[in-house]
Design a protein that fits this description.
- It is a single chain.
- The chain is mainly α.
- About 70% of the residues lie in helices and about 0% in strands.
- The protein contains 16 helices and 2 strands.
- A hairpin with a 2-residue loop joins strand 1 and strand 2.
- Helix 2 crosses helix 11, helix 3 runs antiparallel to helix 15 and helix 8 crosses helix 9.
- The longest helix is centred in the C-terminal third of the chain and has 40 residues.
- It is globular, with a radius of gyration of 21 Å.
- The chain starts with a helix and ends in a 16-residue tail after the last helix.
């Protein structure tokens, strides 16, 4: 699962590099939606298959905050510094915005929440208005975002808000899944759901993808575990199929919408095997730890490389792309080392405190299985 997550992040990087790279791997939009499926799977695992957050919803939210915000805020601060140094058009954009839009951008840049909803707003007659699309605006409002791709975190955080109240109830999960799919069908039938931003930025319809991932964890994973007892290499086989699919996605000659839908179903069916594969292979887990910082930092790295190597970008685009991707991976590793690893200790403490809530230390120690010794300094992240 770790290597697959990093491949999906690279799909988004290639998409944002532009040129002939948009249709590589699975493409940016489908990569985002497959991330939603994976997130639904992992959050279902955290909330229903462990006792880390039973009766401790607040600590679940704190854990999610620590997972997302430190790296996001670091990249946002670095991007702001880059814009200050360059003296570019970023600040001139704000000069043409009404006060309400400035407040909207300031709060969404700081708290992430609302960045997805920003895509449905624009400026009309010098006022902030709901236009139904970021493209219907006198001023490109979305260009005021420091980390433009972080709007997907806004969608994800909306799921985090409702997940503790949905995923432990199969009835609620299925009802909301049906409602989300029905709403998507209605929007497509009316024509609204066929164009950006309604195609993959509208949380009420994207919720279905998270819930499909949750069902993959709760329904498919137990069966895959049983089958793996008989076929020992099944996780490797399932992960290999997903890897090949990611590489071959655009070679499948069917209607793109049908192809994307089948990709979602394939991932939902085989994610449990990728999850089991990750538990067997520490290298896969380590590679997966690059996926989030890679996703968050790549626009900053591409922007910096464009400023520093404009001639290379113009005359040797393949070399520029290779250098930008290498730079993104390097910056991601540094972000993990400087920020994610230290923060992980806080997250680990939160999980331990949540697990022990409501029990005496002696009772908790008696029922806790022995933990194998780990090498000093090793960080073992959970989703």
């Amino acid at each position: 699962m770790g290597f697959l997550r990093t491949l999906l992040a690279l799909s988004v990087v290639l998409d944002h590099l532009g040129g002939g790279y948009a249709d590589q791997l699975v493409g940016g939009r489908l990569a985002v939606q497959l991330f939603y499926v994976i997130s639904g799977f992992l959050i279902s695992y955290v909330l229903t298959a462990t006792d880390n957050y039973q009766g401790a919803t607040g600590k679940f939210y704190a854990n999610r905050f620590l997972r997302l915000f430190p790296i996001y805020l670091a990249v946002a601060a670095l991007t702001l510094t880059a814009h200050i140094v360059s003296g570019g058009s970023f600040f001139r954009l704000y000069e043409s915005l009404p006060f309400s839009a400035e407040v909207f951008l300031f709060l969404s840049n700081l708290f992430i929440f609302g960045q997805d909803w920003l895509m449905f707003f624009g400026i009309r007659d010098s006022a902030l208005a709901f236009t139904g699309s970021f493209a219907n605006s006198d001023v490109p409002l979305y260009k005021g975002l420091l980390v433009p791709q972080a709007w997907t975190l806004g969608v994800e955080m909306s799921f985090y808000l409702v997940a503790p109240f949905i995923l432990r109830s199969p009835r609620r999960l299925l009802m909301l899944l049906a409602a989300s799919l029905a709403l998507r069908a209605v929007l497509i039938a009316t024509g609204v759901g066929r164009s950006d931003p309604w195609t993959y930025r509208f949380f009420p319809t994207e919720l279905a993808l998270f819930l499909i991932g949750s069902l993959s964890h709760q329904v498919v994973l137990p069966r895959m575990k049983a089958w793996t007892q008989r076929v020992k290499r099944l996780p490797e086989l399932g992960t290999g199929i997903l890897f090949i699919y990611v590489l071959a996605h655009f070679s499948i000659g069917i209607h793109p919408t049908v192809r994307d839908g089948l990709a979602v179903l394939l991932f939902a069916a085989l994610l449990p095997l990728a999850f089991l594969f990750q538990s067997r292979h520490r290298l896969d887990k380590a590679i997966g730890e690059l996926s989030y910082p890679l996703y968050i930092c790549h626009m900053l790295v591409i922007m910096a490389f464009s400023w520093l190597m404009h001639d290379v970008q113009e005359h040797q685009p393949m070399l520029f792309a290779a250098m930008a991707i290498t730079g993104c991976i390097g910056v991601s590793a540094v972000l993990n080392y400087l920020i994610a690893d230290p923060v992980e200790r806080l997250r680990s403490r939160l999980r331990t405190d949540a697990k022990g809530a409501g029990t005496s230390p002696a009772a908790d120690a008696a029922r806790r299985p022995p933990v194998p010794a780990q090498p000093m300094g090793t960080i073992r992240r959970v989703p």
